[in-house]
Specification:
Elements: H1 4-18, E1 20-21, H2 31-37, E2 48-49, E3 52-53, H3 59-76, E4 80-82, H4 88-99, E5 105-108, H5 125-129, E6 131-134, H6 146-156, E7 160-163, H7 174-184, E8 187-191, H8 196-200, E9 213-217, E10 228-232, H9 250-262, H10 268-282, H11 284-306, E11 320-324, H12 337-346, E12 349-350, E13 352-354, E14 368-372, H13 374-378, H14 383-398, H15 403-418
Parallel strand pairs: 1-12, 5-6, 5-7, 7-8, 8-9
Antiparallel strand pairs: 2-3, 4-10, 9-10, 11-14, 13-14
Helix pairs in contact: 2-10, 3-10, 4-9, 6-7, 11-14, 14-15
The protein binds D-serine.
D-serine is lined by residues 25, 88, 116, 166.
Length: 428
């Protein structure tokens, strides 16, 4: 008997093919990446690091992990890479565990302004374990105010300053963030999960060579498997101030925090898939992809604004845009993000409801929508398709309760998707 799971996977494959994927943190990994994820490497235990394992039989595993490490370092121009974190949240936890003591101060952006759950949300281990000093975007520009961040850092003297966000559409000046950290004796950390692909593609400034520690998931703009890595400096700039009694440098402390600190057996099948994705991202065509992701986001943003839709910060420099439904004059009500996201999904346009800065509503029924172009760009869509999609989104938002309109657009979405197949002959 065929396990019904396979039928459901088939149905999900059809859904992915027939809908427009605008969730900015999603993408379509290559068939090679997916094949490595489904490979026999999943059968192996390999606690430890290349050359120093707690299990025998790791000759090939060592070779794969070493390649992944070398490629990650090359990709980001980093001195050290740990490719074992299972995903973004454990990667962030490992950095905090390596550098901080419970109660230490972290300066970070709260969730409703675009930070991640693991950047100090009261519901998360980070917010429960450390003292969080939040910095927010400027209420007028809805962008980072580095002077305000500096003033707060000088006042609070955090031990770590975290930048990199999940719903911030503008470029981040990692150099200034690091300089502020230097001025107050803090570590600088950047979680570049959303923009890693844009950074390696050369369309967003890099956090290296200055930032102390960088975490990233590997499945968003970077287009690899669902996982994460930590890349960092080798030495601890603040060794004289913190961790004086430790003989370990920064890189060694991160490695120990990942294993044996937090994780057991690394997922070697995913590490192989990460190595493949890093090689793909090192190719010249990845730069073309990254530029097209941003071009597409800017055309989508311009189309929406022409249609009278308010975007947070009035545009984007990256792969994502944030619709402010509250300040969109034809809606002008709080808490409609979820209703709008469902209406769009009915039309085959998949995005997510999201908080906007200073949102009066809750994270489950927020006042915004978050959209992004990494997945549509992987499918080969360009400016002309973005304009069409922007007009569809606008028509639905102008008439949220119109189910007939959603059905009609859904058919148009399907025929557009047919022209842009995701995978030709995927075995799944
Ligand atoms: N869930 C991710 C995102 O959508 O941004 C962050 O973990």
């Amino acid at each position: 008997m065929i396990d019904p799971i396979w039928n459901v996977i088939q149905q999900e494959k059809v859904r992915q093919q027939q809908t427009l994927q605008l969730i900015p943190s999603e993408n379509y990994a290559s068939k090679e990446v997916l094949a490595a994820c489904g490979s026999i490497l999943s059968n192996k235990y390999a606690e430890g690091y290349p050359g120093k394992r707690y299990y025998q039989g790791n000759i090939h595993i060592d070779e794969i992990e070493q390649l992944a490490i070398e490629r990650a370092k090359k990709l980001f121009g980093a001195e050290h890479a740990n490719v074992q974190p299972l995903s973004g949240a454990p990667a962030n936890l490992a950095v905090f565990f390596a550098l901080l003591q419970p109660g230490d101060k972290i300066m970070a952006m709260p969730l409703d302004h675009g930070g991640h759950l693991t950047h100090g949300s009261p519901a998360n281990f980070s917010g429960k374990t450390y003292t969080i000093i939040p910095y927010r975007v400027d209420p007028e520009t809805e962008q980072l105010d580095y002077q305000m961040i500096r003033t707060l850092a000088l006042q609070e003297k955090p031990k770590l300053i975290l930048s990199g966000f999940t719903a911030y559409p503008r470029k981040i000046n990692f150099k200034i963030m690091h300089e502020i950290a230097e001025d107050v004796g803090a570590y600088s950390m950047a979680d570049i999960s959303h923009i890693a692909g844009l950074i390696v593609g050369g369309v967003h400034p890099s956090p290296f060579p200055f930032t102390d520690v960088v975490t990233t998931t590997t499945h968003k703009t970077l287009r690899g498997p669902r996982s994460a890595i930590i890349v960092s400096k080798q030495e601890d700039r603040l060794h004289g101030i913190y961790h004086k009694n430790s003989k370990k440098n920064l890189a060694q402390r991160i490695d120990s925090a990942v294993f044996p600190g937090l994780q057991g057996g690394p997922h070697q099948h995913t590490i192989a898939a990460k190595a493949i994705a890093f090689e793909e991202a090192l190719r010249p065509e990845f730069k073309v992809y990254a530029q097209q992701v941003v071009n597409n986001a800017q055309v989508l943003a311009a189309t929406l604004m022409e249609e009278g839709i308010k975007l947070v910060s009035n545009g984007t420099d990256t792969h994502l845009l944030l619709i402010d439904l509250l300040k969109t004059s034809f809606i002008n009500k709080p808490g409609l993000g979820r209703i709008a996201a469902v209406a769009l999904e009915n039309a085959g346009i998949v995005c997510n409801a999201n908080t906007i800065p200073f949102d009066p509503s809750t994270p489950f029924t927020p006042s915004g929508l978050r959209l992004g172009t990494p997945a549509l760009t992987t499918r080969g869509m360009k400016e002309a398709e973005m304009k069409k999609i922007g007009v569809w989104i606008s028509s639905i938002l102008h008439d949220l309760g119109n189910e007939q309109l959603q059905k009609t657009i859904c058919e148009q979405v399907k025929s557009l998707c047919e022209q842009f197949p995701i995978y030709d002959d995927l075995y799944l």
